[in-house]
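For reproducibility, we list the full input for the ribose-5-phosphate complex.
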Amino acid sequence: MSLCIVAGSANPNLAEAVAAGVGGVAMRSGLERFPDGELCPVVGPMRGDDVYVLQPTTPPVNEHLMELALLLDACRRAGSTRVTAVVPYFGYARQDRRSRPGQAIGARVVADILAAAGADRIIVVDPHTPGFEATCSIPVEVLTATSVLVTALRNRETSGSVVVAPDLGAVKLAERFAATLGLPVAVVRKSRTSGTSVRAEELVGDVVGRRPIIVDDMISTGATIEATARFLESHGALPQTVVAATHALLLEAAPERLDQLGLARLLVTDTVPPSNDLPILEVCSVAALLSDAIGRLHREEPLDDLARFE
Ligand code: R5P
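The corresponding predicted structure, in tokenized form, follows.
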């Protein structure tokens, strides 16, 4: 069974890098668009292959999701033996439970769509919650970019720093970074006041005289990072905050918002195609992580040291 990487349109550069890492070339799918907005992706020959379709569901989320579902179906119909959806950034993962009556569980709906379209398995990187796997009826390989970001953080001095979780959901993530870097942890409790603003309300841990390293799974509008950085400084932390986050959506005014904070470093990965609007951005690629994982899955080898268990 040959290994085949198929690139959707959401992050072809990452797909090319991943394919190069496994010693191949990404198959670029053709993508036709009909006048009414329908998408029609087309794949090449892959009969009998072990296929990995790489498509993060980045904005425009619904377009990229639909393209992914159609690609999975196309791969199945083209005679592939096994199809894995590689979704480094999984949109809708934040909808893993109902936070008020009348809502849907979006993560479950999207996972069901991918399974129904033909995915045998899903690979994700740092999904929003550990509970993500439970929303999927097919096997999920949950990878983490922690080691990729920690390696980059270690390029510069981190002694005297404190790893900060900007909300309660990020505590486990912060603990992983802190354990690897040998640093203490602090936690900020936040409440969201709207889709684009949050309030940092309480601090647990000692940040006085320390440089914060704020870690999060994603930066969307930048509201969480802005509120946390300012809150930490008002509580005695050193300025020149460092931020490390896996998924850099950087929507709306996020680039200007982050630019104004005077951050010392802003480390993200390329699960989402990197923005050119923020000179401070340091992009750490997850291509090697994904190539390693895909190579091992293809050879039926364990992934335990790459995976995230909580
Ligand atoms: C939320 O719980 C997530 O972990 C992130 O903190 C959040 O999605 C970031 O969004 P924003 O940048 O809009 O504050």
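The pocket of ribose-5-phosphate is lined by residues 166-167, 169-170, 198, 216-224 (CB under 6 Å). The chain has a mean pLDDT of 95. Both points were considered when choosing residues for closer inspection.
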